[in-house]
Design brief:
The protein has 2 domains: 1-110, no CATH class; 112-261, no CATH class. It is mainly α and 261 residues long. It has helices at residues 2-8, 11-39, 70-74, 89-108, 112-134, 139-152, 162-187, 194-207, 212-232, 245-258. Helix 5 packs antiparallel against helix 6 (139-152), helix 5 (112-134) packs antiparallel against helix 10 and helix 7 (162-187) runs antiparallel to helix 8.
Length: 261
């Protein structure tokens, strides 16, 4: 009986976080589309204006067409005006954000740790998608993420003591900068983009320096495995760059889940 009650008790929290994740997932679809285009000079659209519209025919979406997931299902994945297919990444990002928020609520329960986990993952998810699609890790996301991590760890209930968070931020940047410099000296090519340095610094600010090792090992191992599989399948060439940000973000979420916070 107690076990049943333990499962029922957090149900409203999990449901509430799932709805919150779905709503933010809808915003993330705008973020990952507009921010890189603005940074590259391909569009003057901001995150707030103009209103959401079809990128093909510029049809402005009505209120119900902005409903996360439901509108995509109701329209069968097509624009209501021009019937152009709407990319799968829209519902996948919304659903992924919803499921991740619900899982974090189930894992952490109500409290400061849940608030921090939601905030951290709320940055990591769009950063991973942007890097995977464009190879960019915008400073406008990585820098606030770093400072928010340090502020979060000012609390005694943070994920790491503040000194460990500060060292984690500095160490995260330094270890990838040194790795990149060594790669440049040995091969004449940069081993990774500078956005990766800043992302790992932000992760270190949130999780503290003791978690940098597990994050790096997991990210590097998974990136290497995927890279080998892509090369073996002929989908990538040996010298093609593979965005590292998604692997850092995914590794950070795994370590966040497994670490004794």
């Amino acid at each position: 009986m107690n076990g049943v009650l333990a499962l029922i008790a957090p149900a409203p929290l999990i449901a509430g976080c799932a709805v919150l994740g779905l709503l933010f997932g809808s915003f993330f679809t705008v973020l990952v589309h507009r921010l890189p285009r603005r940074l590259l000079g391909d569009s003057a659209d901001t995150l707030w204006a103009p209103r959401s519209h079809c990128p093909h025919c510029r049809h402005v979406l009505g209120a119900w067409e902005n409903l996360p997931l439901l509108s995509w299902l109701g329209l069968r994945g097509r624009c209501r005006a021009c019937h152009t297919p709407v990319g799968w990444h829209y519902p996948l990002l919304e659903a992924g954000s919803m499921l991740l928020a619900a899982a974090l609520a189930w894992h952490f329960g109500a409290g400061w740790s849940l608030a921090g986990a939601l905030l951290l993952c709320g940055f990591l998810l769009p950063l991973a998608v942007i890097d995977a699609r464009t190879g960019l890790l915008p400073d406008s996301l990585t820098r606030p993420l770093l400072w928010l991590g340090l502020l979060f760890n000012l609390s005694a209930d943070g994920f790491a003591p503040l000194p460990a968070a500060v060292i984690g931020a500095a160490g995260g940047y330094a270890v990838l900068w040194l790795t990149c410099r060594a790669c440049t000296l040995l091969t004449g090519r940069d081993g990774m983009g500078h956005g990766d340095f800043k992302l790992l610094a932000a992760i270190g600010a949130w999780l503290g320096w003791p978690q940098l090792g597990p994050v790096l090992l997991l990210a590097a191992g998974s990136a290497a495995l995927v890279g080998v599989l892509l090369i073996a399948s002929g989908r990538r060439h040996r010298h093609d760059a593979i965005p590292f940000g998604p692997y850092l973000a995914a590794a950070a979420v795994v370590v966040l889940w497994r670490a004794p916070f």
